[in-house]
C-alpha cells in the first residue's frame, strides 16, 4: 500500500529571498538533522541572467534502524537524489527528491515548494508532499514502513525550526535583508540564449530518473508517477498551518496530512457543499485518522444529511410544544474549558410519555436539532475564547431515575437515537458528567453501553449520591457560579423540569402514521381486540427454564383481565375468531384464541400467576421468571362488571361503564419479549436490590390488596418477585 503525505501551507513572515538565504545554509550538512550526514553536488546549472539556478545533490543519510535490519540489507547509509530548481524571477523554489538506495524495492518520492504568499509579497509559503511505496524488503516491509514514517515525520517537525534557526543566525550576522533578483542591464544575445537552452537540456538528460526531467522555466515542476505535487488553487482552497493551530488544534504532521487529503478529495468529488474543517476532523479522529474509514463514514453521513435536510433543521423545524414543555434538557453556559454545557434532567423526564405522545421520529429530530445547535455553539465559543473548541460537555442528572425509565420500547428508541448520533456526530461529546446515579442505573447502563463507542465511553464520569460535591467532583469541571440551582448551586437554570406527559396527549400508531411519522412502536407494538367470550392470547415457547418473559401493554378501551398460563403441550395453531359481529379483521387490531374449549384448567394447562384486573387507560409493565420449559400463554380477557351484592340489578356506574364499551369490545396495545437468564441476571440483581436500597421503589412496595380507581394510574407488575408497585408512588406515564 502506498503511504502518502500532504502538508498544510506553512507561512514564514519573511521575504522569499531571506528564506532562500537561510535554506542554503542547510548544505552540505545540517547539525540540526543528525541523520543528514553529508551531501555532494552532482550537477549544477545557472542561467546567464542568474534567474534560474538548478542544483542536484546526492545526500547521505544515516537512518535510525535496528542494526540487524541494516546488516540484512547490507548497508550502513541510505542515499537520496535531491534536485532544487530556483526561479528567482518567479520567486519559487521546487525541490524534487527520490531514493537511490533500494530503488527497486522501495520507492520514495518527495516534492516541496517555496513560493511568495499570494496576499503578502513579503511573506513566504511552504508546501510539501511525499509518497512511500514498499514493494518488497526481505520480509520486513511493515518494519521498514514504520521506520520510514517515523523518521519522516520527525524531520517534518524540525523543518520550520531549522529555517527559523538559520534566520536568527543571519540576523546575528547583521543580514536582515536580501535584495530581489533584477534582470541585467543588457539582454543576452541570441547566441547566448541558445547556448543556455542547450546547457539546460543537457542537464535534464543527465538526471538518472526520467521523472525528474523538466524544463527550467517558470512553470511548476512536473513529477509524473511520483509524489503528488501540492495542489494549485486559491488561498481559500488550502489550509494554513496557523489556521489549523488556531481553529483546529495541535495536530501531528500525519494528522494534518490526513485532514488535507480528505478535504481535497471532498472538494474534488462533492461539487456542492462540503463539511467544515472541524467536522471533517471529527470523522478522522473517530476512525483514528484512517482516511479510508473516515471517507466511508463521512460519505454516508453526507448522504444522510442531504436526504433528511439536516443542514436546515434549525431554520425549518419547530419542536412540538410537548417537547418544549416536557423534555427536561437545555443549554446552560459553558464549562471551565469553554465547551458549551448541555444539562439533561433525565430522572425527571417521562420517556414513555414522550414516545407515546410524539413518536420516535419527533424525538430523533429534536436530538438532531440539539446536536446542530451544539455545533453552532462550538464555533461561537472558538471565536470567544480564542482556542479550538470542537465538542461540548453534557451534564446528566439522574435524580428520580426509576423503573419507569427502563420501559423497553423507550430504551430501544434511545438506542436508535444513539446509533444515529454516533454515526453522524462523532467526537462531539467532550465530557459526560452523570450525577446522582441511583442503584437502578447499572441496569440502564448495561443496556445502553454496548452501543456507545469506546472513545466516547472513556469520557464518562459517574457520581453516585452526593459524591459530585466532593473532591474531583463538579467543581473541577464547572465554575461554582454557574452550577444549577437544583444541584445546590447559585445559578438559576432555565431547563424545563419535565414531569409526566398527560395521557390526553398520547396518540395511537394509526394517528402518527396518518401524519407520515414513523413511530418506533409500530414495529414492536401490536394491537388486539378483546370481546366478551373471545379473549386474545399469544403463545411463547420456553426452552430453557429461568428465562424471563417481559411485557408492556396499554388498555386503550374497556377493562380487561390479564392471565399467564403454562402448558406442557402446544395448543393447536392459532385461528382467528370468526364471529362476524366482532369485526375482527378491522384495522383496529386482531383476535387470536389458543386455548381449546375442551381443555381443562389444572389438567391441560395451569395458571402460573394470579389474574390482574386492568382498567381502561392503565399501562402495565412486568416480567415473569419461568420455572419450567414448555408453552406459556399470555391472555387478555374481557372483564365483566360485577352485580351489586344486595340486588341482582346492575349498579348505575356499571351501566354507564358498559355503555362506553360498544359491543362489549376492549382494545389493548402490547409488546412482549423473552430474555435469556444469562442476559437478565444483572437486571434481576438490580431489581431485587432496589426493594430495600432504592428509596422510591422500596417506598412503593405495598400489599397487592390495595387498589386505585383512577384510570390514569400506571402499575408495574413484577410477577417474578411477587411485588406490585402502585402507580401513584411509581408513575409510569
TrEMBL record:
Tree of life domain: Eukaryota
Domain CRAL-TRIO: 319-495
SMART domains: CRAL_TRIO_N, SEC14
Region annotation (Disordered) ranges: 214-235
Residues in PRELI/MSF1 domain copies: 3-175
Gene3D superfamilies from the UniProt entry: CRAL-TRIO lipid binding domain, GOLD domain
Domain GOLD: 521-674
Pfam families given in the database record: CRAL_TRIO, CRAL_TRIO_N, PRELI
Name of the protein this chain belongs to: SEC14-like protein 1 isoform X1
Gene: SEC14L1
Amino acid at each position: 500500500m502506498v503511504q502518502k503525505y500532504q502538508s498544510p501551507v506553512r507561512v514564514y513572515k519573511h521575504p522569499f529571498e531571506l528564506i532562500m538565504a537561510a535554506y542554503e545554509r542547510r548544505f552540505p550538512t545540517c547539525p540540526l538533522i543528525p541523520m543528514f550526514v553529508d551531501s555532494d553536488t552532482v550537477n549544477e546549472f545557472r542561467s546567464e541572467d542568474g534567474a534560474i539556478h538548478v542544483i542536484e545533490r546526492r545526500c547521505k543519510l544515516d537512518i535510525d534502524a535496528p542494526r540487524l535490519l541494516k546488516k540484512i540489507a547490507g548497508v550502513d547509509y541510505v542515499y537520496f537524489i535531491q534536485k532544487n530548481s530556483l526561479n528567482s524571477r518567479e520567486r519559487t523554489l521546487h525541490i524534487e527528491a527520490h531514493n537511490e538506495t533500494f530503488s527497486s524495492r522501495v520507492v520514495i518520492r518527495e516534492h516541496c515548494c517555496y513560493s511568495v504568499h499570494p496576499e503578502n509579497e513579503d511573506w513566504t509559503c511552504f508546501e510539501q508532499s511525499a509518497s512511500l511505496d514498499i514493494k518488497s524488503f526481505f520480509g520486513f516491509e511493515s518494519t521498514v514502513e514504520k521506520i520510514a514514517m517515523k523518521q519522516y515525520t520527525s524531520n517534518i517537525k524540525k523543518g520550520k525550526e531549522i529555517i527559523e534557526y538559520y534566520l536568527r543566525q543571519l540576523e546575528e550576522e547583521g543580514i536582515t535583508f536580501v535584495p530581489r533578483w533584477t534582470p541585467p542591464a543588457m539582454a543576452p544575445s541570441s547566441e547566448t540564449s541558445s547556448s543556455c537552452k542547450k546547457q539546460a537540456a543537457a542537464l535534464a538528460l543527465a538526471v538518472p530518473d526520467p521523472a525528474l526531467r523538466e524544463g527550467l522555466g517558470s512553470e511548476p515542476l512536473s513529477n509524473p508517477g511520483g509524489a503528488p505535487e501540492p495542489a494549485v488553487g486559491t488561498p481559500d482552497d488550502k489550509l494554513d498551518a496557523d489556521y489549523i493551530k488556531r481553529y483546529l488544534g495541535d495536530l501531528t504532521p500525519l494528522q494534518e496530512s490526513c485532514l488535507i487529503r480528505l478535504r481535497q478529495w471532498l472538494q474534488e468529488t462533492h461539487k456542492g457543499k462540503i463539511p467544515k474543517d472541524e467536522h471533517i476532523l471529527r470523522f478522522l479522529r473517530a476512525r483514528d485518522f484512517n482516511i479510508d474509514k473516515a471517507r466511508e463514514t463521512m460519505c454516508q453521513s453526507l448522504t444522510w444529511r442531504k436526504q433528511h435536510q439536516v443542514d436546515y433543521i434549525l431554520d425549518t423545524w419547530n419542536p412540538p410544544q410537548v417537547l418544549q414543555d416536557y423534555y427536561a434538557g437545555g443549554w446552560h453556559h459553558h464549562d471551565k474549558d469553554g465547551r458549551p454545557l448541555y444539562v439533561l434532567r433525565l430522572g425527571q423526564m417521562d420517556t414513555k410519555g414522550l414516545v407515546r405522545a410524539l413518536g420516535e421520529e419527533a424525538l430523533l429530530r429534536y436530538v438532531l436539532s440539539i446536536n446542530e445547535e451544539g455545533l453552532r455553539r462550538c464555533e461561537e465559543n472558538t471565536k470567544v475564547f480564542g482556542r479550538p473548541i470542537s465538542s461540548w460537555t453534557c451534564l446528566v442528572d439522574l435524580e428520580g431515575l426509576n423503573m419507569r425509565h427502563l420501559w423497553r420500547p423507550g430504551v430501544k428508541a434511545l438506542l436508535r437515537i444513539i446509533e444515529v448520533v454516533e454515526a453522524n456526530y462523532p467526537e462531539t461529546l467532550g465530557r459526560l458528567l452523570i450525577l446522582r446515579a441511583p442503584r437502578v442505573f447499572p441496569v440502564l447502563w448495561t443496556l445502553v453501553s454496548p452501543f456507545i463507542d469506546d472513545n466516547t465511553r472513556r469520557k464518562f464520569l459517574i457520581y453516585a449520591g452526593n459524591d459530585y460535591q466532593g473532591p474531583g467532583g463538579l467543581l473541577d469541571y464547572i465554575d461554582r457560579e454557574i452550577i444549577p440551582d437544583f444541584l445546590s448551586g447559585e445559578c438559576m437554570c432555565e431547563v424545563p423540569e419535565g414531569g409526566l406527559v398527560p395521557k390526553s396527549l398520547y396518540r395511537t400508531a394509526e394517528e402518527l402514521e396518518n401524519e407520515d411519522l414513523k413511530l418506533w412502536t409500530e414495529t414492536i407494538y401490536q394491537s388486539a381486540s378483546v370481546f366478551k367470550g373471545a379473549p386474545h392470547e399469544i403463545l411463547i415457547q420456553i426452552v430453557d427454564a429461568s428465562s424471563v418473559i417481559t411485557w408492556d401493554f396499554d388498555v386503550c378501551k374497556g377493562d380487561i383481565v390479564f392471565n399467564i398460563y403454562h402448558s406442557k403441550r402446544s395448543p393447536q395453531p392459532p385461528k382467528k375468531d370468526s364471529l362476524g359481529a366482532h369485526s375482527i379483521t378491522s384495522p383496529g387490531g386482531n383476535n387470536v384464541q389458543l386455548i381449546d374449549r375442551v381443555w381443562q384448567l389444572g389438567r391441560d394447562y395451569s395458571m402460573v400467576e394470579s389474574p390482574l384486573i386492568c382498567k381502561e387507560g392503565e399501562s402495565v409493565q412486568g416480567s415473569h421468571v419461568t420455572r419450567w420449559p414448555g408453552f406459556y400463554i399470555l391472555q387478555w380477557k374481557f372483564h365483566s362488571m360485577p352485580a351489586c351484592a344486595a340486588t341482582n340489578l346492575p349498579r348505575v356506574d356499571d351501566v354507564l361503564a358498559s355503555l362506553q364499551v360498544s359491543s362489549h369490545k376492549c382494545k389493548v396495545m402490547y409488546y412482549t419479549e423473552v430474555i435469556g437468564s444469562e442476559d437478565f441476571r444483572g437486571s434481576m440483581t438490580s431489581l431485587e436490590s432496589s426493594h430495600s436500597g432504592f428509596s422510591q421503589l422500596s417506598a412503593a412496595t405495598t400489599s397487592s390488596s390495595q387498589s386505585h380507581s383512577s384510570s390514569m394510574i400506571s402499575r408495574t407488575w413484577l410477577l417474578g418477585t411477587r411485588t406490585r408497585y402502585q402507580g401513584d408512588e411509581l408513575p409510569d406515564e
